Queue: 3 jobs
Job 1
Amino acid sequence: MKDEQELVGDLIAKRDKKPKMTKQGDSIDVWPWQRMVRLTGEMMDNQYVFTLPTDSNYKDRDTLVWEVRYRFLEPMLADSLRGVTMAMQVIYEKDADTVLHPASITKIMTLILIFDALNSGKINLTDDVTVSEYAASMGGSQVFLEPGETQTVETMIKCISVASANDACVAMAELIAGSEEGFVAKMNERAKGLGMSNTTFINCCGLDTDGHMSTARDVALMSRELIVQYPQIHNYSTIWMDTITHVTRKGESEFGLTNTNKLIKQYQWATGLKTGSTGLAKCCLSATANKDGVELIAVIMAAPDSKTRFSDAVTLLNYGYSVCDIYHDTEMPQLPNLSVSGGRCDTLSLSYAKEFSTLFLEPVDTASIEKQLTLPETVTAPVNEGDVIGTLTYTLDGKTIGTVDITAAQSVSSATYGDALFKMFRKLTGAA
């Protein structure tokens, strides 16, 4: 009886164009930020919750996309969006939750907020940034910006990503939030939204300060956020050497930038991401790499010296690639045409919403992967192009490893009275 009720509920939902609700499973909290707010232009509540179905193998997948419902602070028409939830698969970890000083890998979060501001339209790459006396006084790793000097946002991003410039960080923080203090508050809010439960930021550049702490796991979380949401960061993090031009009261002068991440030269698949070193933090690194479409992140904290952090990162990345195997289905089953009831045409062509790929952390016999098409015998008009009609399910050893939506490749409107008469006439006359 329960199954029948669920079936009836699904049919009603389909009729009313309502999303099918997942059954109760694991709950996750999602904090919307500026990027999502920009989609609607409206203020949203601080937090919303949705559930993942218990039969989804999401922990072994890299991306899950769900329709989520959220609540606005003020009434508006829109009430849903498509939210992306990342499921990070940890291949190897040691002391992942030990709280340590993060040094300049702090700047990963600074870069996230910069790209958030770019994405929202608050700032542009070509905007000028004026350096304050406070920003110019940061010390540590810097590009020696002078008070009153202006540089573009893009140049500042380059200085942060390549040369780990503290002065550029603070200048950008002041541009976006009005002050470093206000910017740091946004950093901590963003960290909370990413589930970085053991991180507290006190400044935006990573200088040693009481209470400025993080963990390897939290660094991995924010690193993933940066490279997934803003892959253009690699345009900067892979620069080995470059120059900027200082224009001050003293005139123009060139300043050379050299990437602090030696893996860019030493490891052929390296794509970034950020180094850090201070007296308390010792030598830190969040290393990203991409080999054959598989992206890995290796986080090293509190290494005794710079050479060790790089060699340890290479060891971890090589191990990751030795156990990771990505499967791409290059032979997805051919889709049939479906019969249409009550439509202006009698058949509906189908297409896959995407190609299927998944990541395995151990060798598997891909020939043993089974595929199951789930399609109705007929569909009822109207049908809109892109409507989900069915699914292709992939299983291995009886366990679901992923699904792909099957969608309508065309729209089919409902038949009119005239269409019905015409069809009857053609049938009676035997017209083709």
Job 2
Amino acid sequence: MDKFVIHGGHRLSGEIEVSGAKNAAVALIPAVLLCDEPCILENVPEISDVSISLRILYEMGAQVDYINRTTVRISTVGLKNFCVPYESARRMRASYYFLGALLGKFGKARVSMPGGCPLGDRPIDQHLKAFSALGAKCDIQHGMVDLTAEKLTGNQIYLDVVSVGATMNAMLAAVRAEGLTVIENAAKEPHIVDLANFLNSMGADIMGAGTDVIKVRGVQYLHGTTYSVIPDQIEAGTFMIAAAATHGDVLVKNVIPKHLESISAKLEEAGAEIIEYDDAVRITRFKPLTRCNVKTMPHPGFPTDMQPQMAVLLSVAEGTSILTEGVWDNRFQYVGELSRMGANIQVDGKVAVIEGVPALTGVTVKATDLRAGAAMIIAGMVARGETRVTNIQYVDRGYEDVVEKFSALGADIRRVPCDDGDDGAATANAG
């Protein structure tokens, strides 16, 4: 197992290109199951969650061929397997998208309960509610989810909570159902829109993605397509915060600036300057960081996946900031690690009170989940001395070439093998 070794105090500057969105790619890949012809996906990020998704398809009998590093051709023509391999499914949360795709394709699906980052209770009850509304019978035994349906029929689906996963799964299952499906209280995230656009490019009939009401009219046939995954909003935001935290000047390229508005607004409030271009944003900071309050919300609010990174920035800002988590129950696990570096953070339930300190100090810390891992990297870059980040398999789930990209901006970061003395180096599930 590897770790990151970071020497802080280096100002980030230069240009960086953002990869394809993890949260979109892991839904688009299962969606190919619904297609009756081969598909080509472009701008696919080279990360472990994508590798696992593609491996699942391959193990099920699909043909998966890389045309180049970021372009993959997938054919599920003739595939008859509706069971997702257990070992692969349990390694990532997004394996549940195979439920909706397989149900839509075959009228049945068998998938183990998904794994992923330990962010608290993330039940799939809303997913199952959607499947049941379309006519599926659901059975969960011994950690396996079994779905069967003689026929899928369009229906009204009201989600009790705004859920990205349930919205996507409802769309996947409804695409080939008979009649009209209306999904109310739907999530609005950019990757929801990307999935709808991908399915529509194959001949689906989906309207309203990006609003809280999505209408899906079922079709009988989906044709092949070539489609490019949207840029990763969270990777872009991570580089933006890193630039602001290190007093940097960074041009983040291959982005959709509108997807970044909530992040840009909070960074400007904290003292950074943001310039938007057609497909890029420039982040600079010439004055001290100042306090601001942040509450994570479903899109278009501040993303929960940016909360740990923002906490690092606020931990070295002047004044007292209040960070409220509005999505997950267990998103502050990283606070103990950040406190070991000298941060002054008090957590009460879903609220963290952050008293800014003059500086952080490098120590050995561990990534408690994917985004917490990115936060530890940023903390290492602003800290005095050497920081070692372990459990970095979490980071590999969602960030492509993270060492190379940060190094290109001037960070002193290396990936090296762990040794026996590294605390927490071998404790976490691969996620």
Job 3
Amino acid sequence: MNSRSQAAIAIADVLAGRSLSASLPPALAKLADRDRGFCQALCFGTLRYYPAISLIIEQLIARPIKAKELEVQALIAAAIYQLWQLDTAPHAAINESVEACRALKKPWAVKLVNAVLRNFTRRREEILVSVAEEPEFESAHPAWLAGKIRKSWPDQWREIIAANNLQAPLTLRVNRRMHSRDSYLKRLADAGVDGVACRHSDDGITLAQACDVTELPGFADGWLSVQDEAAQLSAQLLELAPGQRVLDSCSAPGGKTCHILEREPALAGLLALDSDPSRLQRVHQNLTRLGLEATTAVANASAPESWWDGQLYDRILLDAPCSASGVIRRHPDIKLLRRPADIDKLAVLQQQMLQALWPTLAEGGLLLYATCSVLRSENDRQLSTFLAAQTHARCEPIVATWGIATEFGRQLLPQANGHDGFYYAKLRKLPS
């Protein structure tokens, strides 16, 4: 099976509105092991630069390709990514793309693909100059999204945009029930794998190079998990202690759920909720691999009447649904899938969840509000609205060496060789 044709199929699915996490696995499953890495890299790279690549394609094709032929659009985009960003030899990129076109059973498009790519090769500098000043070309982000990032962070937005366009490092979380971080670093070194301790998470390790994590020492035995350093901070911030009842209200895929259990084995109980049954299955898989136990339920966190047993929680983690604008480098399809109206809808949902979960928290208890967003409308603004309506809530400052202190919480911005973008705020429930 042709790796470029499978990449085109996966990219086309994203152009049609499907997430890459859903479209990529079926494409990779049809390829030999040796071809999967290239296909994956081609998908990620093409989608990372697609807002800019689409402008290039507009200069090369007089009439837009029909919506029913998105695989051809995706194939051309992937080839331009190779020619422009990877400096792939033109004959290789063009010839292989033509063969991929045949593999897709699109014989009518062979001449089109060949002509468009040869035209780009001949006129590359001219075309790049013609689109250079377009905002979407410069940022490789939709203009509306880059604008929102700039509005939230007027002094840092260029650095955020640049970080979003880089490949994220591979970061591990060591299961402290089985190994200390130092002991696992030694295991890695013995296996010839180069890794360094994370600066802010005391369970985190960042690898010098990405690899197949299933081949790392002890992965199948639950010694480690893949989790970004910023996400690892949630378990540290919850101030866990034996005997507490804990709610993870939006738990899938289960990284934070498992980290909570790893850090505090003597909880009175942990309930992990998620509204998506298929995603909750991921939580089960992670719990099983790591040898952990929790109660799980398919449920909507905004409707406690459907799942709450009436017993108050000492700790609540609300990792709220959000724009994911802080993890674009890991999910470049966000640039294509997210729409301006989504931000307002998500803000409504975030507030609904905050207000609905608050009555389930015990006096003196802590609710940790988290998003993987860099947009203030999903972060500080949510806390401002919530605190205005709740007289028995106090926002506690997060004293830390990481991130930027905001009015109510702390914001991590994506770092080129470090953590993702993330926001945290701590809400303490006061006596009524």
